[in-house]
Amino acid sequence: MLYLISLGNYLLFHTVVELFSVYVAYVIFLIVWKSRSRLENGYLIFIGVAFFFIGSIDFLHTFTFRGMELFPGSGINLTVQLWIAARYLESITFLLAPLFLIKRKEDVNPDVEKRYIISPDSSAFAWNVFLVYAAITILCLLSIFFFRNFPAAYIEGSGITTFKILSEYIISFILFCSLIALYVKRDHFESKVFNLLAASIALAALGDLSFALYSHIGEFPNITGHFLKLLSFYFIYQAVVGIGFEEPCSLLFRELKHREEEFRQKAIFLGDEYHLICRMIGANRTSEPQNKSSDKERVQENYHPFSDHFPGVWFQLDENFMPVSIEGPVEEVSGYGKDEILSGKITLTELVVPEDQPSVFENRKKLKSNPRLVIENELRIRKKNGETKWVRKIIRGIESAPEGSGNFQGLAYDITERKMAEEALEKIERIRIKEVHHRIKNNLQVISSLLSLQAEKFDDREVIEAFRESQNRVASIAMIHEELHGGESPDSLDFAGYLQKLTSDLFNSYRVGKDGINLTLELESVRLGMDTAIPLGIIVNELVSNSLKHAFPGINEGEICISLRNEEKPEFENEIFDSVPDSPENSNFHYILTVSDNGKGIPDDIDFRTTDSLGLQLITILIDQIDGSIELKRDQGTEFTLRFND
């Protein structure tokens, strides 16, 4: 058959295709591995980890090409064996991956509408897949390189073997089966992600069919197969890398987004249910019986709507809050039978977890002092089997209660599902905010790098300095978003820890000729929100930069001090010293930040509020932005004192 390209050009083309495949495989692995703790899509985790090992075998395959000399004397057989091993691993990966997609099940009890998600512990699952694939890859490589029991794929003088041809057909068949499995699970993907993955698998299958049809390198089926492989890896690159970066909620966090919507709808439903209960209670309190009856019958009549329409527990309590009567699914809610509770074997207080018991006693005091009061609260109870559940309790006094009946009546119902939905929504929102901080931080770091690259094109010292100052300002903001992304709270950060990192970076930025300048930090732990932390970070950046640049001209020794303290008085101090008026400058602010140096100081004839210096202008603008105050002292150097609130 006619050769399409020369051997040299073929090897170059083959090398480019393989290196691109290796690059795609490693990038997919890095993205999935870095996101593994937050991913709930087992398909992506499985594919991402597997591609690390597929890419590694392809990488070894590349180094067996003629001229690479990494494995001298290995011959074409080793090249084809590694190719077959990588393709088997790729096809089986695509076939098994749909099995690890998130499953949804419905509770078998038709009276309880519950949906839950079964998903693996993502990080542990990723490590398990990594170890399994590592073992498989090592066994394959040992079989090829050391034991040499891997079937021959190419024989010098006669060409490719039957094993190689059959393997290509088998691999294509497996890939087509995996395409069907992916189609069955298509609802787990956005349409464009599914289309890209399906196209990638289909092209890989067609590519392996092409490789089964050639007898020598350089022939049309061989060249076609490499083109199809190139396109296959390009499509999976677009599916995971392109969409993963541009629209993470369409791929990496799709299940999280859907769960958020599901929980939001559930919260709305439960909220409507709660309002219905409130209306029932309101109707119950205002209704009056039409016919005369005994007081006890009237009290029992009040409970009729609850027992008929409400799936909770309703009860009567005596003056000591001991149960007189109790109705409803008591055992389902508490795990104890009615007799156990009415006999006093287990008291209602003992059901409540110890952390929530103080609120129970406080509410009882309020009810005794005002019988007309209606108390509503949410608390946790521990069932007989040790399970903890959330319940909402509503209780009120019974006016003119007859002897033998309860003095208080109320109801309790299970709100565990609602609480779980609220906690899940809160967790999802925290993850969303953290991801926003992460992306902002990355974009700011890109801007900082661009400023650094742009500065290298200039020789003017003032221009370079201006770029460096801008770079430091951007970096100070990026560092805040990094702290918010990595911290416990997505909307506040430990400003003391942030100042330590910021000043360390600034000293590194101006380290040339400044080795003798010491930094002293006296920082109390203070948590600030982003709206306050960002302006303050820029202010500290400007003040410390000015000290490093201008306070110590011609000398290599000095000291810069930064202190941060919380001036907000505890409640007991406010009560004790309430009659002592504070000075106006301290009474309105909770925090004091001081930046000082023992350098030459700012001349007396310069007003920092009206100077032409961009840095000092920024300080004035930003301190006004956070409604703070700033004071300058020029004794023995320079000392700026900032007072502010969060």
Q: Calculate Rg over CA atoms.
A: 36 Å
What is the architecture of the largest domain at the second tier of CATH? Up-down Bundle
The major pleated sheet works out as:
5 strands, antiparallel
Structural class: alpha+beta
Q: What general form does the structure show?
A: flat
The residue-averaged pLDDT reads 78
**Portion in strands:** 5-15%
Terminal Cα separation, in Å? Answer: 78 Å
List the quaternary state of the chains. single chain
Which blocks of ≥5 consecutive residues have pLDDT under 50? 103-120, 279-307, 570-585
Query: What is the count of structural domains?
Result: 3
Tell me about this structure.
The protein is α+β, with helices and mostly antiparallel strands. It has helices spanning 7-34, 42-62, 75-96, 122-145, 162-184, 191-211, 220-246, 254-286, 295-302, 304-309, 330-334, 338-342, 348-351, 357-369, 416-455, 461-486, 495-509, 530-551, 571-576, 584-587, 614-625, and strands at residues 103-106, 115-118, 154-155, 159-160, 313-317, 323-327, 374-382, 388-397, 408-414, 492-494, 517-523, 527-529, 558-566, 591-597, 629-633, 638-644. The protein has three domains: 1-102 and 122-258, Rhopdopsin 7-helix transmembrane proteins; 312-421, Beta-Lactamase (2-Layer Sandwich), CATH 3.30.450.20; 507-568 and 586-644, Heat Shock Protein 90 (2-Layer Sandwich), CATH 3.30.565.10. The protein has 21 helices and 16 strands. α2 (42-62) packs antiparallel against α3, α8 (254-286) packs antiparallel against α15 (416-455) and α15 (416-455) runs antiparallel to α16 (461-486). The radius of gyration is 36 Å and the shape is flat. Keywords: Kinase, Membrane, Transferase, Transmembrane, Transmembrane helix. It is an enzyme of class 2 (transferase). Residues 435-646 form the Histidine kinase domain.
